[in-house]
Amino acid sequence: MHEGLKIVLVLLTSAVLVVALAKAFRLPSVLAYLAIGVAVGPHALGWLRESEQTERLAEFGVVFLMFTIGLEFSLPRLMAMRWQVFGLGGAQVATTTLATLLIGLAGGIPWQAGLALGAILAMSSTAIVGRLLAEKLDLHSASGRRTMSVLLFQDLMVVFMLILIPALADASRVAAALGIALAQTLAVLLLVIAVGRPILRRWFDLVVRRKSAELFMLNVLWVTMGLAFLTEWAGLSLTLGAFLGGMLISETMYRHQVEADIRPFRDVLLGLFFITIGAQLDPAIVWQRIEWVALVLAGLVAGKGLLMLIVARLSGADASVAFRTAAQLAQAGEFGFVLITLAAEHRLLGPEVVQPSLAGMLLSMLLAPFVIERARHWSTRLSGDEWLQRSAALQEVAARAFNIQDHAIVCGYGRTGQSVARFLARERIPFIALDMDAHRVQQALTAGENVVFGNADRREVLLAAGLDRARIVVVTYPDLPSTMKALAIVRGRRPDLPVVVRAADDAHLDELKRAGATEVVPEVMEGSLMLAAQTLLRLDVPLRRVLHDIEEVRGQRYELLRERYRDAAHKE
């Protein structure tokens, strides 16, 4: 068998098994890829040997990652959050970098290496933290907003660090090399933004008019690779060009389609990149310097967390919010691996520093979900302000629900929740809606709608919303964990209360039914029925027959889903 094909097959088999295991334990895929790299790398099983071709292919994973970060980069969004992004984020990166630099100098590490290592350890994991905050509906909480602001600043700092680290490698000409690199960066930025933005927008308009998905995808790849080549040719990095390409496309209406098209390339190649990072880890050196691994881990979780706690408190956050923000940032990040690889390539950091640093960073990411979850429980013990805020929020919910009974509780006031509320209002059925988006709640209140800020996966919030007096509960959350929590609370208090649940499809129907959902409405099925109805009407099929057909299919489908649930229940 061809050796290259054998390696690819081994990597794919390992990835399928280990990523599936990581998903079962609700861990990020990046940790699975790193573990595969450690296992199959040259320092363990030896299946994956170091080669320029493998490293080059893996580098394209970072290129596509930076491209998608550029897609998320928005100047209006940055200006709206500028104080937290540049103030809080800048303070976090500066204090972590400075503290690491001082510790490194005390340990005999040159200042250039200490500065690079400090910037590497200042990075936190956007993939892990963003996913956890989204699952807990904490993205718009006080700590969530601060955390995401700091992560955004870190993403921007990566662009600068990609220039700084190679410049630091030339100790005799650091200032000159850095000045030249910054001048090159400004020139490329001005050229791309001033000239490239209007040209790219018009070009994509022409491409879209051809109505070819293949041509559209080819142009996305062309822009990504072309700008990456341009910046590397200018003496900068591939990833800087990819970031600029994503930033340019983010200004067009095609950004969401581009993101969807590029994701398969990014995920596969990025997985390969993290495998090559894991393959660099030498267990023998790590074991010989285990005390340094422990020091890096303690520095990331305790030291970095403590610094962030101080910075957050000085910025005006109460103790509870500051503690949660610190815990959410107390780990290494994906870009830390990118930067440490770059520092090793330029011989800025030797194996005696890189190996324990890699191990400590990996362990900090493994611990991150547990640290963040425990911080949620411990934060309320640090300050009474959190209880006061919750009490004020509960009083607002209770006040809104005080004069209503036999009402509906709508959990989630996005597009689906708003649609349900409009039908309830048309039938003059009283309702109270709960939502965690403060801006959305404020808009609804201004419009005179009975919506309050509250999280329906908390028992006290549902009770304040009049759960004991309610006639029905409608759960419109798009994520399964929050829906399951709300169902458990409702069923624990009101076993007889009807609960209608929104679901993306019928994949989790059995699970939702077991949790106590009276009815589960799969959006995919309902959307297909409406599409079929519109098609038949356009083909001059009488309206009465269309309605009859749709109702018949709907009834058969839901009955089929119920039968499947009953069969599954009998087998248990």
What are the defining features of this structure?
6 strands; 2 domains; Rossmann fold; 572 residues; disordered C terminus
Your description of this structure?
This protein has 572 residues and is mostly helical. The protein has two domains: 381 residues, Na+/H+ antiporter like fold; 184 residues, Rossmann fold (3-Layer(aba) Sandwich). Helix content is 74%, strand content 4%. It contains 25 helices and six strands. The chain has a six-stranded parallel beta sheet, with helices on both faces. Helix 2 runs parallel beside helix 12, helix 8 packs parallel to helix 16 and helix 9 packs across helix 11. It is globular, with a radius of gyration of 27 Å.
Per-chain topology:
Blueprint: H1 3-24, H2 29-40, H3 52-72, H4 75-80, H5 82-106, H6 111-122, H7 126-135, H8 142-168, H9 174-209, H10 213-233, H11 238-250, H12 255-279, H13 283-288, H14 290-314, H15 319-328, H16 334-345, H17 351-382, H18 385-401, E1 408-411, H19 415-426, E2 431-435, H20 438-446, E3 451-453, H21 459-464, E4 472-475, H22 480-493, E5 499-503, H23 509-515, E6 519-522, H24 523-538, H25 543-571
Parallel strand pairs: 1-2, 1-4, 2-3, 4-5, 5-6
